[in-house]
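To whoever picks this up:

The nightly regression suite flagged MerR family transcriptional regulator as changed. Nothing in the input moved, so I suspect the structure step. Input below, exactly as stored in the fixture:
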Amino acid sequence: MFKISEFSKISQLSVKTLRYYDQLNLLKPAHTDKFTGYRYYSADQMFQLHRILAFKELGFSLEQIRVMMDEQIPLEQIRGMFRIKQIEIQSVLEKEQARLDRIKERLSGIQHEGKERSQDVVLKEVEPQLVLSYRQKASLRQIPELFRQLDDYLGSYGLSSLSQMVLWHGCEESDDEIDMEVARVLAQKIPERHPFIVKQLPEVPLMATLIHHCRTTSRCTASTELAVWIERNGYRMKENEPRREICIPHEKSDDPEAFVAEIQIAVERL
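Regenerated output under the current build:
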């Protein structure tokens, strides 16, 4: 048996909290001296305490925990509760990380406002390209999964491609329904099967291009810089030509979504 002060040290829970749990009939002492009123706890009660603290981590109230302790919920069911909670928290963390990445990008964009990169813009002719593509309305965060499906199909023919291309067709409804097309350049034609198609991207006589570092799951701030250059240099976007973005994995980064990318916008003289 352990005095309440000793049990407090072992459990790393305050004496005040242990007394409160006693009042709630949540964790009663194994023995209370009827003459001195001293509370004594057994080592086995540590397991009860672990469950109480586990249920607290899951967000249950002390009253709910008391009822659950009386019901003696099986250990496997508790494990299941924790697995569900783990998935929920992981989802929240991923969403907050994505939000943090967006904030960093917006801050970077603000810091570069007004700073021209005209020396980095290149006008060039782009030849026709044979590609395997997959077009869908989706959000930015779905891009890796779209490429995974595209690459699985490409891999079924024993083929692979170093670079990846995104064709941005438009965004008229919502940020989660961006009309985009992921593509891989082909050296030879292969059979197509819905939703994957094989097609030839047309030749573009005049393409304004800008190389930058990016993450495909985040909005491209380089597009703004390229748009400023186009407007200031007497060009306009060519109608019905999607913005292209060609991405190559960034070798020096540990981030699997980090790329060196080239933004391409088809233009014509005003």
